[in-house]
Write a structure and sequence with these properties.
This protein is an alpha/beta fold. It is built from 13 helices and eight strands. It catalyses: (6R)-5,10-methylene-5,6,7,8-tetrahydrofolate + 3-methyl-2-oxobutanoate + H2O = 2-dehydropantoate + (6S)-5,6,7,8-tetrahydrofolate.
């Protein structure tokens, strides 16, 4: 049955049958949604060694989030982007939850798998979402290993410091690189009186510094600094021998990360102060859908000369002749 379907598709598309069989055997490569071989640079996935090479050279590291297959493909196709973060922010920008706290681990895992199928050439970091690791060291290891078994994830990101010392240490001993996250911790916004900048007082800034030094001593590979004054982020960066990735922390960190939906303008909200919008995909997307709908209403789309599959006149005549007999 499959061969008949392929043969028919080949006939309609004016392709040789042998050519279609080759396309069929390559699976996803035959999809109209697959990028041409030359569209994405062919090179091995970024490694922690490559990330550290940029860090030691003083070249800022660029990280962007991805939340599904398409956003993963976009990030992967950007040659200058170093790493992809599958952040729990996808709970809000991709799934529609009001905060990051609501997303179940299995739902988050589904999105991780989608991104991993798309990304071929970047260092991938994955969050542990709220509720998937806090209750015990064993729970943390179980959740982390499920993500690592996807085969593409390079590091697990954990929010917090002292309270997760044993979990972080165990993961590292098991060969799982850990990325830390301090400053503003979205998973704990209730205890922080909302999404507020951290480190604005002497005591608060010192606490963040101590957490950074502690996490480095514990053995983490990278450290995300979120929502803190740029002076504090810069100072902490100078005191560490591991790369810091800033978000809302100024340009004195070792690198930057932004939520892809924010930087591409995929939604109507302005977003946090630290976000720079590089595109307005929401506005352009709505405009494109509206244009499509108008063309459908006006019978302007599809154009039979462009968007359909031709049929030989003789075959059509024979069909019509036999159809009239039914």
């Amino acid at each position: 049955m499959a061969s008949k379907t392929v043969a028919r598709a080949c006939f309609l598309g004016r392709r040789s049958f042998s050519g279609c069989l080759r396309a069929q055997s390559t699976g996803a490569q035959s999809s109209p949604y697959s990028a041409p071989e030359t569209a994405i640079a062919k090179h091995k996935p970024s490694t922690l060694k490559e990330i550290y090479a940029k860090y030691k050279n003083g070249t800022p590291i660029s990280v962007v989030t991805a939340h599904d297959y398409i956003s993963g493909k976009w990030a992967d196709a950007a040659p200058s982007c170093d790493a992809v973060l599958i952040g729990d922010s996808l709970a809000m920008v991709a799934v529609g939850y009001p905060t990051t706290l609501e997303i179940p681990f299995d739902e988050f895992y589904y999105h991780c798998a989608s991104v991993c199928r798309a990304v071929k050439s970047k260092y991938i970091i994955a969050d542990l979402p709220y509720g998937s690791f806090e209750s015990s060291v064993e729970k943390c290891i179980e959740s982390s290993m499920r993500l690592m078994k996807l085969g593409k994830i390079c590091s697990i990101k954990i929010e917090g410091a002292y309270e997760h010392e044993e979990s972080i240490s165990r993961l590292i001993k098991l060969g799982i690189p850990v990325t830390g996250h301090i400053g503003l911790k979205p998973q704990r916004f209730n205890g922080l009186e909302g999404f507020r900048v951290q480190g604005k007082t002497v005591d608060s800034a010192l606490q963040i510094l101590k957490e950074a030094l502690f996490l480095q001593e514990t053995g983490i590979s990278l450290l995300v600094l979120e929502g803190i004054p740029h002076e504090i982020a810069s100072y902490i960066t100078t005191k560490l021998s591991i790369p810091t990735i800033g978000i809302g922390a100024g340009n004195g960190t070792s690198g930057q990360v932004l939520v892809q939906a924010d930087l591409l303008g995929m939604h109507t909200g302005r977003g946090p102060k630290f976000v720079k919008r590089y595109e307005d995909l929401y506005g352009k997307g709505v405009a494109a859908i509206e244009k499509y709908a108008q063309e459908v209403s006006a019978s302007a789309f599809p154009d039979n000369a462009v968007h359909t599959y031709p049929m030989k006149t003789k075959v059509l005549e024979e069909f019509l002749e036999q159809a009239e007999k039914i």
